[in-house]
Amino acid sequence: MTPVELSRTVLRAVRRAVDEGELSVVVPVRAVVTPPGPGGCGDYATNIALQLARPAGRPAQQVAEILRPHLTRSEGVADVEITGPGFLNIRLGGGAGASLVREIRRQRDAYGHGDVLAGQIVPLRIPYDIRAEVVADTLVRIVATQGGRAEVHHIHPSRVEPAATEFSRAEPAGTDLSQAKTAGAQPSHADPPRTKAPQADPPRPHRPRPHPRTTTLRPTPAPEDPTPLGPDAARWALLHPASHDRPRISADHLVQRESNPLFRVRYAHARTRALTRNAAALGCTGDPGDVPEDVPGGDELVGALAGYPAVLTQAALHRAPDRLARHLVTTADALLAFQHTVLPLGDEKPSAAHRARLALAEAAGTVLAGGLSLLGISAPDYL
Questions:
Q1: According to the model, what pLDDT value does residue 36 have?
Q2: Sheet holding 214-216, edge to edge
């Protein structure tokens, strides 16, 4: 079950509770489903009970208790636990990993793309600084994955900007209401005589369309020119740290060892391609299926792939490409722990279990390549 499918399952549980008279609320259009946070458990968590508590006139814990049995009876859901103020933590049943892999295979590079910013223009204002340029260039692509269109504008060096403004809203220009008045309809000569003159319509003020919210990007500048690192390492050095952190410009981004996060991400992608080539030599191809929980790295890898769409959405909404970079490191680490279980060992023959693991590894390669592409970094097949 993919996050999108699970979101629909949560909404169906709400609808059943409403139909049976247990809740008196309007069923929302969307239920947010994300990997569990600190203190959570299971495969996914949703805050739908907190969202419905106020309109239902009940505590969130009580709403969660009402929804829990409806969710537990849903196909593909193995168990539901309530944590914190009313979060529903969902553990999926069999087939969750296979369904996710099939979804990634179907969407390919479009996996994780959404419509939360559909039709919106996102103006980005940046200073003339290399890190700001790279962040804005990356955000143009990330915002596009959510249906929006980012427009980059430079701040003139001589213009004084507010010191601590992260987000600012452009105010609509004033409107001359005298020009917005409309005259009442006048009777024509063909109209029958009237004993009372028609009243003029009241003035209708012109309501200008609100300007899109403008984001001023002011990431901490790099202490030195990163271009000697080369395009890939330079972009990673500028994008991986959070915008308020000073980027580290050093040759460590070029070394091919586990201490280098960029190397781990690109190496993990290259390993997925090598697994496909080696499997082909054995006459084995990937086929989505369940991966047992005791396979090292398997659960972590499924969780990282399932969480990728939410990370893309948050990176777009918060204008934070570093969230995507860090999630790619998490995905890569899970893949590197998982890779040793994919191919048969010794005289072992390829089985359905191997094909399922290969399909999961290939799905990870798709996500890693897509994420690196959004960051503007290459994903070589050989490393």
A1: 84
A2: 149-154, 121-126, 214-216, 167-168
Please report, for residues 171, 188, 207, 353, the alpha-carbon distance to residue 210 in angstroms, rounded to integers and kept in the order given: 8, 39, 9, 55
Rounded to a whole number, what is the distance in angstroms from the first to the last CA of the chain? 33
Instruction: Find out whether 99 and 64 touch, Cβ atoms under 8 Å.
Output: no
Percent of the chain clearing pLDDT 70 (strictly above): 84
- HSE-up of 316 (CA within 13 Å, CB side)? 29
> Residue 20: which region, alpha, beta or left (left: phi > 0; alpha: psi -120 to 50)?
alpha
CB 306 within 8 A of CB 91: no
Which runs of consecutive H residues, i.e. helices, occur in the chain? Answer: 3-19, 48-56, 60-72, 96-107, 130-145, 231-239, 261-281, 298-317, 321-338, 352-375
What is the token pair recorded at 368? 């890693």
This prediction has a pTM of 0.70
Q: Is 270 exposed, middle or buried (0-12, 13-18, 19+ CB in 10 A)?
A: middle
In angstroms, rounded to a whole number, what is the distance separating the alpha carbons of residues 174 and 185? 28
pLDDT tens readout for residues 50-105: 999 999 999 999 999 999 989 988 877 888 999 999 999 998 765 667 888 998 99
Q: Which residue has the tokens 């919210």?
A: 213
Single-letter amino acid code for the residue at 305 = L
